[in-house]
Amino acid sequence: MSEVTPTARAEAALEGDALVVQVGGEWRITEHCPGWLELLRDHRPRHIRLAARELGTWDSSLALFVHEARTWAETHSVPFQTEGLPAGLEKLTALLGTKPARPGTPHRGLLNLPAALGLATVALWRELKDIAWLVGECAFSVGRFFRGQAQFRWQDCFAEMQQCGAMALPIVSLISFLVGVIMAYQGAVQLRQFGADIYVADMVGLSVVREMGPMMAAVVLAGRTGAAFAATLGNMKANEEIDALETLGVSPVDFLVMPRLTALLLMMPLLALYSNCLGILGGLVISAGILDIPSSLYWAETKTIIDLSDLSTGVIKAASFGVLIGLSGCLRGMQADRSAAGVGTAATRAVVTGILLIIVADSLFAVAFNILGW
Does residue 218 have a pLDDT over 80? Predict the structure, then answer.
């Protein structure tokens, strides 16, 4: 004969004004288990004592029974006492009694303007502090580099230079050429009315060299390289690789941030010069195709309007944009949450922050160069 496993049982008996409940047997969530309300029935005790008797194996079904009894006792202000229950059962019942706080209902009315302004100010202050911290750490890292104490690897820098330089040439070429085409075409439509077709070369040359060349290269790298930096560092943070570097005494700024900043600082001016050439080439194609301006005449007019100050202006802007893109990408990557969603959010924020800093820096450069007479 097969051995019959004792089923879950709960017996209740009144002893004066106290209800004594004895639980025993095998409590399994997959089997039928007694319910507290079924056991209570019409009893209205002034005291409840729950004890274990011949209790076998148990799981969360017994914990739910005890929790239901305790909840009923608290609701009706009845003293509740347990005797002889396993320690693990007491812990599990206590966990069931802790309920997570409900999320607050979102406010559907008008926003509290002072509170919203205050929160935005605090968030902006934190962002400025984080940026200042990273800039300061990079400055200390540069000092350690010149003293020969920085944990900086040139092979990492060369690998990043290839990724943000040579690998970005196709997209930079396409966008720069099309920007030159668009500018030349729009300028030709207006200048042709006044017989000033040749000045298309002046407009395209100055606009591309001083503004559009560095700007287009920077925007492309902000979306391509800045997001890649944030995703890489965010993934490393999620995998606790950055924590491992700090545990080993390796500075993450020296080992991870500075090679990327150096790569962008070196490659952005070259990409800007390359973008200038492609933009001027786009204007030349439109001038030769629509305005019937010979290529030699277009090139001669371009050389008369562009001087070294214009080229240096674009190179300075490009180098500054490269540093800003690297800082925004690395900052967002190191701020990322330790999850896959956090990595994606960091990449998105890196692109937004990079483009915002590029626009702000370009406006400051415009004012500064105007004051200097460049």
Answer: yes
Q: Is 105 a member of any domain?
A: no
Whether pTM exceeds 0.85: no
Instruction: Determine the average pLDDT of the residues in 230-253.
Output: 89
pLDDT digits (tens, 9 = 90+) for 45-75: 888 888 888 788 888 888 888 888 888 888 8
Given a cut of 60, is residue 351 above it in pLDDT? yes
How many CB atoms are closer than 10 A to CB 164?
Answer: 25
Are 252 and 368 contacting, i.e. CB atoms less than 8 angstroms apart? no
Range of the domain at 178: 129-372
Structure tokens belonging to residue 77: 């202000």
Are 264 and 326 members of one domain? Answer: yes
Candidates 366, 370, 367, 372; CA nearest to 214 is 366
User: What confidence tens digit (pLDDT) does each residue in 273-310 have?
Assistant: 999 999 999 999 988 888 888 888 889 988 888 888 88
Of 74, 97, 120, the residue at which a domain comes to its end is 97
Q: What's the average model confidence in pLDDT over 104-130?
A: 78
Cα–Cα dist 242/167, whole Å: 27
Largest CA distance in the chain: 114
